[in-house]
Structure formats: structure tokens, C-alpha cells
Specification:
The complex is a heterodimer. Chain A has 16 helices and 18 strands. In chain A, helix 1 packs antiparallel against helix 3. Chain A is an alpha+beta fold. The longest helix of chain A has 21 residues. Chain B is of the alpha/beta class. Chain B folds into 3 domains: 103 residues, Fumarate Reductase Iron-sulfur Protein, Chain B, domain 2, CATH 1.10.1060; 134 residues, Rossmann fold (3-Layer(aba) Sandwich), CATH 3.40.50; 123 residues, Rossmann fold (3-Layer(aba) Sandwich). Chain B contains 19 helices and 10 strands. In chain B, strand 3, helix 13 and strand 4 form a beta-alpha-beta unit. In chain B, helix 10 packs across helix 19 and helix 17 packs across helix 18. Classes of the chains: A alpha+beta, B alpha/beta. At the A-B interface, helix 2, helix 4 and strand 15 of A face helix 1, helix 3 and helix 4 of B. The complex binds flavin-adenine dinucleotide and iron/sulfur cluster (2 copies). The site of one iron/sulfur cluster has 14 residues of chain B, from helix 2 and helix 5.
Amino acid sequence: MSSLIEELAAICGAEYVSDKMVDRLCHTRDAGPTPGGVPAVVVRPRTTAQVSEIVRAANRHATPIFVWGRSTTFIGHGIQTGCILLALDLMSQIVRMDFDNHAVTVETGAIWHAVDIELAKRGWELAVPGSGGMFVCTVGGSVAYNSVPHGLAGYGMTGDNVIALEVVLPNGDVIYTGSAGNRAAGGLAFERYANGPDIAGLFIGSCGVFGVITQVTYRIRRKPDAERFAFYAFDSSDVALDAAQALQRRQVPTHMVGLFGGPKPTGLTGEAFLHIVVRDTPAGADERVSAAHAICAGYNGVRQDEAATERYWVHHMYSWLRNTPPEVYYSDRPYTCPEAAAFMPTQNVKDALRYLKNYEVEHAAEFAQHGIRIKCYDVYFSRNAAFLWIDTLFPELDAAAWQYGLKMRADYSEHLFSQFASPGGILAPLAPHIMPKLGSGFDFLRVLKAQLDPNGILNPGVLLLGKGEAK
Amino acid sequence: MSDGQRAIDKLRDVIYQCNRCAHCFDLSWLGDYNKCPAYRFGVFESYTGRGRFFLARALVDGKTDYTAEIAQRVFACTECRACAEHCFKYISTTDVYAAMKEDLAARDLLPPRLAAGLADAGGLGEYHNVYQGSQEDRLAWLPDRSRVDKKAEVVFFVGCTSAYARQNMALDLYALLEQAGIDFTIMSDEWCCGHPYLAGGQMGKARASIQHTLDAVEKLGAKQLVFNCPGCQRAFRDDWTELTGQAAPFEAVHVIELLAERLKQGEIAMKRFRPKTMITYHDPCVLGRWMGIYDAPRELIKAIPGANLVEMPRNRRDAYCCGAGGMIRYDFEAMANLAGADRIAEAEATGAEMILSACPACVMQLQQSRQRAKSRLKVMDITQLLASQLQPLRAKR
Ligand SMILES: Cc1cc2nc3c(=O)[nH]c(=O)nc-3n(C[C@H](O)[C@H](O)[C@H](O)COP(=O)(O)OP(=O)(O)OC[C@H]3O[C@@H](n4cnc5c(N)ncnc54)[C@H](O)[C@@H]3O)c2cc1C
Ligand code: SF4
Ligand code: SF4
């Protein structure tokens, strides 16, 4: 190990490498409930060339790497004891704002919202505002995880708006995707689907198992002129979901969130709620929000004060979905939230909710015993489907409650992934519940991993790919 | 804390509230700005709020014990509270750092220079000031001693920095209080407020230091202590209550609070400032984030005709620490210098010609940073500017 550390210090400079316990302890887990191992060394490169050299050194020393953006996922990173922790937050520059080609190129560690703010100063914005973690998460980490962003219905997934990537492969080679791949033509990043297969797609959502993203070129747009909001309460989840589907059919929402469980918005009655955000030209926005009112009224929706929706959209704080200021919503809990989340057809959300509500009834005694709270069963609607978040809160201080929470997540995941649902980002704790279900698709990923990363160097165990414990 | 007990263990439930979301070290809503000077300096996450919570969690879970390395990280913190102000879970992060400091002090794990600075022999314990000046020299700046130890309702608590290192500030505040018509006294036996002991995790000594002042004030029968130093003010306004559960038997106010109130009441006005000048204001962390005083200094600056206030991007609750806090200059001089340089650069970028603050430690730090950066900015305490601008309108209460 000491010769590896010397090599890393030679690559990055000794001050950017630490094998001190005090530093290693700070890189053991993400924001999720599952603790990981303690890395052997933390290294903070500042350039792509350094990343490439680090990956080559890791291969020489047969020591795996775990890639760390801002580590803000809520699942569990699966960091292995003894690994090299590759922390990318110092690679955070905006490389180029290319307004002609509607693109911004940033280093991987740039914070999502910080990039958006720089664009906003010029009247532009990133093609998605980012996930709820936008204030903290890195661009590269969000692309690697393919986070589910605000604006999902209108703008698509995080990965949909990637134009090009610069990636360090598991053998240390650096590649460029899309039009940027044509080095003879200057490597200009402006079109994803140039030069043959969509290579960027391999790295989006694969959580670092196939390569380390070092630069991202992302779509940008001029800020739209108008934003309109609507907020409706419904008598039942089923009706709200029918209304949501009608809204999807008419392509009304830019962003739409459904609340189907957890606390109701403060002071409101009703069983289920839809928040609708529309962004367009003023005339287009007026027309679409009128359509939203007409459709929701058609399902006996009761109009609510859309100030809550606007606050949520402006501040990107989930608390406002429930009409509650953040300081009230977030401040009272030694609680953790083991997220289970999945895409499903909009109509299947009804089945998922029935299952979840039954689960609550059947396990009422355990819920009470362990102090389990349902934070939300919320849905982000895409253009045509739904992404359901199942957020349960349990007191992590209580070891029994914590174990029970993990079991709940395993139960939900097994059930839903066996029926009609598929997760988005897959990290280590979720992988056993989904990867074996992929059959030959999983075999294909294994082949790819074995070919690209024969030593199992990058993020082993994530997606159930690569080798087991680090030596 | 008695032998074997650790302050940190009492905060286990608080430590478990941290969900590792990382909201404590960037200011992404302002663009590419960071909010934690320790992270900016230290590069590694162990310097950040989240990192400290990782370490605290490892401590309470028995995964590690206090070490000199942990001490290095915990004390490399300006106590600016930017992390607490922006914590996603509204955790008072600095309570956890204070507990760690207390435990580290109890284990003789203070960084060496801080330990020497606070020592009973040759340090704060002996001199009762952090500049190791003699007690006789504490009031050497005074033009005459007519106000010393006289009975009055108001005490001007001079503080160590004004008494020993920036005596012009003491003189200016003295003049300002006279101009404002305030009947005040000065204590001959003033000691350090105790704030440095708190930064060093030495709660017992902090209590004793504060108690000394409480006794002296009682003898004078004063009802109000006036400060130009927010750290000193906080020791009596908030820390004493936290340490003992009791409020100090007098009101502890910053002079700018007094003056802003008098301005509002129409009792004072400001002379025109010539030539017209762009001024920016640096919020001292203790005055702003710790005590919530953001408006009073701005109201006073805006009241000066000819003074145009222009804000830095990081202002009020987002203000960036200048590097003067947490006694870091003892052992982390480079960190203090880096923070100061960043703040001067940020002030310069506003186009301001002058940067004001309301804290002698911040002003001293910004002046030194300005010199190192060879900046054209003028650095002053707000009280110094007001000393030349104030115009009493009515006879005083
Ligand atoms: C308050 C809050 C709200 C959130 N809301 C949402 C939400 O609405 N939707 C959502 O999807 N998520 C949400 N999240 C989770 C999280 O913020 C995002 O998913 C985010 O995209 C993760 O970014 P990161 O930089 O922290 O990545 P990390 O957590 O560091 O990394 C994620 C994965 O990608 C890998 N990785 C990181 N960087 C790279 C790279 N450069 N190259 C290759 N692999 C890499 C890591 O090894 C890991 O496997 C939220 C988080 C918080 C704190
Ligand atoms: S108090 Fe300031 S310096 Fe210390 S960790 Fe928090 S933000 Fe950083
Ligand atoms: S912001 Fe608060 S909850 Fe989030 S990591 Fe920092 S200390 Fe923990």
C-alpha cells in the first residue's frame, strides 16, 4: 500500500493524497442508511490526466477505486474497505459556455446549481434544473447516477440532455463521446448522436462501473419567458392518477409531482394531490395551465393555492410540496430515509400504492414498535410514465429500527421490481434486488465489465458487477 | 467534564441527525462560491461540517478515539457558523464542534500554539489578554482616567484587541460614546472576556474569566455593557447563559445597536461624507450568524450621505468569514491568510473603495490581508467612520 500511496502522491502532489484515518473516515458512505467500508487512501485529482494516471496505478496495484462526486445519493454507496477513494470535487471548473451550440462544458465536480446560476446571469439555464440534490450534487455524479430531475415531464431525465462526455476508462485511456469523439475535427461537443453508437449512454446511469466521467457537455436553453402553476386535491389516488395521465396525454406539465402518501399538505383535505408546473411562452403557458384546470376539474379535482407549488419550484425544497417551510419540515429528526424508488407505467402506480398501504396495515405493529414514519409516496411524472419515491423514515439511533427499515426497503424493492417497476439509479444495496432479474441483460453487462475492466478496478460491487472485497 | 466522561456522547442524537447531505460547504445558489473557509484551506472533507460529523459519528459509535489528527481538523475551524446557518437539517453544528473541543482540551490535545496561548503560565491565564500585554498597559491608550471605575450605568468594555493591538479603535469608540452623549465608565481591572477559552474548549476557564467581569460590573453598579467586539459581547450575552443556565445581570450590546436605535429615534444624524464613496460591509460571523445582527450596521452606513453601500456576493447569512475567528491564527496561519485574501478580493471586485466591519478582530485581519494583497481598499471599523460622521441632535438621556 505504501508504494501505491507514493505513486498517487507523485501523480497528484502529496497534499492531495491522504491515508490518514481522519480523512478516510469521512468517505465511508453516502446519505443513505447503509454504511460502507473504510478506504485505504483518499485522493483528490485536479485534472483528467491525473485521473487517468490514478486508474493506471490502481490497475498495477490491483486495488479498486470508488468514485466520489458529492456522495449525496440516499441509497448506500457500497464503498469497499481498502479501496482508493477517488474524490472528484476539486475538478469543478466551467470549461466553456457555448451559446451558439446551446451547450455548456464543465468538469465533473462542478456543483449542478452553481453552473445553472452562472448561466442564469446570461439569461440561460441548464436543460434540467437538476434533482432535489442540485444545490450540492456534482454534474458528473448526477450523470453517472442519472438522477431524476425536476422538470422530468417536459425535459426528460438528467441523461437525456447530455451532449458529450469525457471519460477515463478502467484501463486509464481517455475517450470522448458524440461529436467530441472526432478529434480530427477539433473534438467540438455539440451533438450526442454523431460518430456511430451512443457511447455516452453506456456511462449514464452506470454509476462509475464502466468509466470515470471527467467532463460533461450538457444542453442549455434560454430561460423561458413564463412559468405558471397549478395545485389540485383529489378524493382518491386512483382519480388523481387518471387525471395525471390525462395531463400527460395533453403534454401539459413541464413538471408534475403527485403526493399519494405521507403527511398531507398543511391545512388541506383530500386523499391525493397534484402539483403542476408549466414553463413556456406567456401564451403557451396560459393555454397549458388552462388545460390543466379543465382536466383536473373533469376529475373533480379541487383547486388549491398554487403559491405552494411556486415556492417548491422556485426554492426546490420538497417541504413546500406539503405547504410547510423547510425549517419546520426538516429540523426534528434523528431519522434516516432508506429510499426505494422506481419507474413504472402511470396506471401501475395504483397497484404500487395498494401494495404499500397494505404493507402499512399488515405491519402496523412493527411500524409502531420501531417508530417508522412514512415521509412520502411521491411521484415525479415523466412524459409518459411515473417515478415513485417510497421514503420511509426510521430512527437510525435505534439499531433494531434501522435493521427493520432496511428489511422494509428490501421487501418493497423485491415486490415492485418483480411486478411492473424498475429502479433508476442502482447502487450496491439495490443491485441484488434488480440485477438478477435482468437475465441476459445482466449477462451482457457482465461481459462488458469483464472486457472493459478485467481487474474489477472501478466501483466493484456497484450494479453487482466486478470483484468482491478489496484486498 | 469529569474524568472518563465525554461531552460528545451527550450529543449522540444530534450527531445522528446529520444525513450527510453536504449542504454545509458550498454556496451554490450564488454560483461557484464556497462557504467554509476550512474546506477551502484543507482540501479534504475532514475539514468540512459534514466531515466533522463523520468524525463525531465515528467517535460516538466507538469506531475511533480522539487523536492529534482529529484535533488538527476540529481546531482548523473559524467557528464562522456558515455550516450551521445552511445545514439542511437545521443542526447547530458548532455545538458538536464545541463538545469535541472540550473533550480534546481535557485530553491535552490542543494544537501547540493555542495551548501555549491559553496557558496559565505565560499565556492568557497569566496575562488575562491574548496579546500578553501587561495589565497596567491595558488602558495606556486613554487620554485621561476621569472615566475609569466611576459609577455609571454603562460600561465600555474595551476588549483585548482594542486595548493592545488597535488602540485607535478604542479611542474612536471612546470619542463616539462621548459624542452620542452616553455616560459611561471603563473598568481598570478589565480581563479578557473569556471567548478565547471557549474557542479552546476550556469551559471552566471561560466561566472564571466571565465571572471576573461580572463581579467588577456589579461593583460599579452598571446595567449595560457596550462593546465594539462581537466576540466579547457574545461571551456575556449568550455564552454565559449557555455555560451556567443564568443570564448575565446586565445587558450586553454592540455599540452599533445603540447607535442604530438612536438614529431611528432621530437623536443622531450623520454628516456628509466627501467625496462620495462606495463602501462595502463585511458581516463579522459572530455579529451576524451567531447573534443575528445584520441590519444595524447597514442602517448606519446608509444614513451617511455620500456613502454608497454596495454588497459583496456573499453577504449577511451567506457572508464569508475573513479568517479571524476560532483563534486559528495561532496554529493555522495559512488558513487565516487564505480566507482574508479571498475576502479582500471579493470586496475589491464590488468596486468599493472602502470595506467596513464591526469587529476589531475582523478589521485587523482585513487590514493585514489588504497589506499582503497590496490592495487599494481602505479597511476600517464602522465605529471609526462614525466617529467622524456622527452629529448629535438632542441632549442625551
Ligand atoms: C436534498 C436532496 C435531494 C435529492 N433529490 C433527488 C432527486 O430529486 N432525484 C434524484 O435522482 N436524486 C436526488 N438526490 C440524490 C442525489 O443528490 C443525486 O442523485 C445526485 O445526482 C448525486 O450526485 P453526487 O455528485 O452526489 O454523486 P455521488 O453520490 O457521489 O455518486 C453517485 C454514483 O455515481 C458514481 N460517480 C460519481 N461521480 C462519478 C463520475 N464522475 N464518474 C463516474 N461515476 C461517478 C459514484 O461512484 C456513485 O456510484 C437528492 C439528494 C439530496 C441531498
Ligand atoms: S464553522 Fe465555518 S470554518 Fe468551521 S466547519 Fe463550519 S463553515 Fe467551516
Ligand atoms: S448540512 Fe447538516 S445534515 Fe447536511 S451534511 Fe452538513 S451537517 Fe450534516
